[in-house]
Amino acid sequence: MAQFLFFLLAVVCVASVFGMIISKNQAYSALFVILTFTCTAGLFALLDAPFIAVIQLIIYAGAIMVLFIFVIMMVDVRKGIAPEKKKWTLVFASGIAVILLIELIVALKMAFSPLSTSSSQAIGNPSDLGYLLFTKYLYPFEITSILIITALVGAIILVKKKEKE
Amino acid sequence: MIPLSYFIILSIVLFVLGIIAFFIKKDLITQFLSVEIMLNAANLAFITFSKSASALDGQIIVFFVITVAAAEVAIGLAIILLIYRQKKSIKTEDIKSMQG
Which one of A3, A101, A138 makes the best mutation probe of the B interface by having the most chain B beta carbons within 10 Å? Predict the structure, then answer.
């Protein structure tokens, strides 16, 4: 059952990335990316990380992608993206990417050949996660909150229209 | 159960697809989306290694990555909006000059 779920999620994930690459419309691209993120949340749940899976759904597939869709609606999509004239960039990028893929897989085989199969013990208990977050990782947590505030203020100041005096 | 190397291979494939999308797409928003896909692939690898080591630290790192990605998206989209207001376009081909 888990194996079937894994393959289903993996296939949908990769297929929706392909869909995002192929589609010309930015809004469709964003929707395909939402599908990818949802599938990744399912994979996280398969890996005993229920809290991260829910966070992925709420923050990534929810909040972040809503921001993207807002901006896509503000920017005029109707002008469209001109069909690609330069074919060589596609060939070049694909070639380099395939080389990188082979390299990463070989590196994986070299380095992590005894990667254990998933053990049965559950580790992703949200209460353990919260305990760790507020003891060992307290300072990073607080620094992240400062970062979020800075980003919020920065984004508002950047986009604010200058008032005419 | 599912071998964990399947998850790592899936994350590698997602990362490489993100790179391909970044290079063949011509508008800023879709390129930004492909950066998000690459971040997601890295998150998947983190969670897999966290499971493999039976330690929670990988999940904490993914939590931080997601928060930082939220901040990054807010700033990045603000910059894209600014570029659109100035140039009336978000195609990378139209953004050549560096003078504001």
Answer: A101
